[in-house]
Amino acid sequence: MEELKMKYLERLSELYPTIASASTEIINLQAILHLPKATEHFLTDIHGEYEAFSHVLKNGSGSIRRKIDDVFGNTMSSRDKQSLATLIYYPTEKMDRIRREEPNMEDWYKITLYRLIEVCKRTMSKYTRSKVRKALPKDFAYVIEELITEKADVLDKEYYYNSIISTIIETSRAEEFIVALSEVIQRLTVDHLHIVGDIYDRGPGPHIIMDKLIRHHSVDIQWGNHDVLWMGAAAGQRGCIANVIRICARYGNLDILEDGYGINLLPLATYALETYADDPCTCFALKGSTGYTAREKEMEVKMHKAISIIQFKVEGQIIKKNPGFKLEKRNLLHHIDFENGTIELDGKVYELLDKNFPTIDPRRPYALTEEEEDIMDRLERAFLGCQKLQEHMRFLLNKGGLYKVYNQNLLYHGCVPLNPDGSLKSVRIYGKVYKGKALYEVLESYVRKGFFALDKKEKERGKDMMWYIWLHENSPLFGKDKMATFERYFLAEKETHKEKKNPYYEFLENEEVVDRILAEFGLPGEGTHIVNGHVPVKSKAGESPIKCQGKVLVIDGGFSKAYQKETGIAGYTLIYNSYGLILAAHEPFESTEAAIEKESDIHSDSTIVKRVIARKTVGDTDIGRELKKRIEDLAWLLESYREGIIAEKI
Ligand SMILES: O=P(O)(O)OC[C@H]1O[C@](O)(COP(=O)(O)O)[C@@H](O)[C@@H]1O
Ligand SMILES: [Mn+2]
């Protein structure tokens, strides 16, 4: 036998030193292969909406409610079922309310514990004992296991069971126990979470979402253009920093930076107040600014204008530094006629809605003033030095990437850039040409270089590449011909605001093109899907998230409040369980408060995208494939023991 093989066999025999231990492991693994496939959830374009996000995580996009229905059927009223569901989502808060109204808490504890244990049993039924054990809270692990496993050798099961429950109540541990059970149910309902990009921007709590994701037991993230923008900012790329601040200002969310990340915006605020003292900055009105005083609003509007102008200048510099990006056309400041307050674009003269540019020198329009330079300098240091932001970005780097292939599904945020004829578009990145998967891979490598490269030039390239990914026509995460930020602020003519999508979006119903993309990423054949976010699905206008007979699922349903008037719903969750693919469309989420008080849930309207003929098992998944390989190796070890090639190690 080859030396290497023998070495491997020896190593394996250290782990499974006897015939008995190797065969037991084979039996265990075989058993796992036959368990139903664990549930995966896919969420996308969360855009800082942490309350809705957290609710969807808690309710498993309706999965917990479905479990309650399965367990109790008609034996429980719909109201009671909803109460039980709310308790599972928000156990502490719900019990605070119940205590105020319930005359007999002891009775309530008994009934509730009984019900929770039943739901718990159902939730755990498809996992191995060892997996369940790992999910159990330390304090209650033993008791929960006693309660959820059938005790064949205990004669009076009911008595045994009741006495455990009574002891829990007598020792005043009922509420803690209820919280523990609820959390286990939540935890095991969603086994794995996929985030298909855009955690950041528009909504108020991306940093809270990141904290939650970091604590989540099993998650992967495909970066969205907004996430990469924040990554670029955290790496100190000035174009990204300016955009991040501008978007926070636009949505009245500067406190994400100030309170959430502790980034000092005072230099920018003072500068904006001075520079635009008498300027109403009407073009820079805020999109969401509830809870602001008039003075606060005034200040934010001025900051919004100040950082936007800085952004246009800084971007001009990046474009000049990187001629390979071919973005000269997007440099617009030098087309402004500052005397007349107009701009010439493609031979046409437009009147500017705002004519006050005290900080732009018409001879050197892209040069920062001394003060602006100083502000950017400080901001750069603040972003680079913010520990929490760096931690969040490190998490994105570790758990994420630009795309993922998982259980026969291809996940990415935006698109695969295509030519008008549907073929893969070739894109030049720092002098070399890439397309399809290779394009994704080179871009991802540059993102990582932007953080980790030792070579200064490569690191700089990596940083600029993050800005490129944010807004470039050839970026798979952006996929539109231009980002019309300048036009949207300064021009009334709507046609100039138009951002034309890459041909990719026209081919979503074209099976040949879709199959080609899937094959490009190593997924030829049946039973594969593309899961895509980024472009809000206008379900109100009759658009369906299910494209190409279910091969493509575009699941950006507008968690972002700003987009709900277009989409008509509050986001989608795709659920992939052992029975197939289900798409849940959520109705707008009012508030956590209402969810607890009124027991209102995100109404999840579910569509079955695909029902499998035979229930999917672990054996059908990526993990299953790995387990099968392990079984093969173990069988080889076993044979080697039996054939005398290797000795047992007892
Ligand atoms: O509506 P807002 O916040 O002004 O943002 C508009 C900009 O956001 C983008 O839609 C990008 O954000 P998304 O990735 O969420 O689509 C740009 O194409 C557009 O210029
Ligand atoms: Mn996006």
How would you portray this structure in words?
- This protein is α/β, with parallel strands linked by helices.
- The chain folds into three domains: 3-34 and 622-642, no CATH class; 40-196 and 533-616, no CATH class; 206-471, no CATH class.
- It is 50% helix and 10% strand.
- The chain is built from 26 helices and 17 strands.
- The strands form four sheets. A seven-stranded mixed β-sheet has the order 7-3-2-1-15-16-17. Strands 8-9-12-14-13 form a five-stranded mixed β-sheet, with no helix packed on it. Strands 4-5-6 form a three-stranded antiparallel β-sheet, with no helix packed on it.
- Helix 14 runs antiparallel to helix 17 (294-321).
- The longest helix is centred in the middle third of the chain and has 28 residues, at 294-321.
- The two termini are 23 Å apart.
- The structure holds 1,6-di-O-phosphono-beta-D-fructofuranose and manganese (II) ion.
- The site of manganese (II) ion has 6 residues, from helix 13.
- Its EC number is 3.1.3.11.
- It catalyses: beta-D-fructose 1,6-bisphosphate + H2O = beta-D-fructose 6-phosphate + phosphate.
- Pathway: Carbohydrate biosynthesis; gluconeogenesis.
- It is an enzyme of class 3 (hydrolase).
- Keywords: Carbohydrate metabolism, Hydrolase, Manganese.
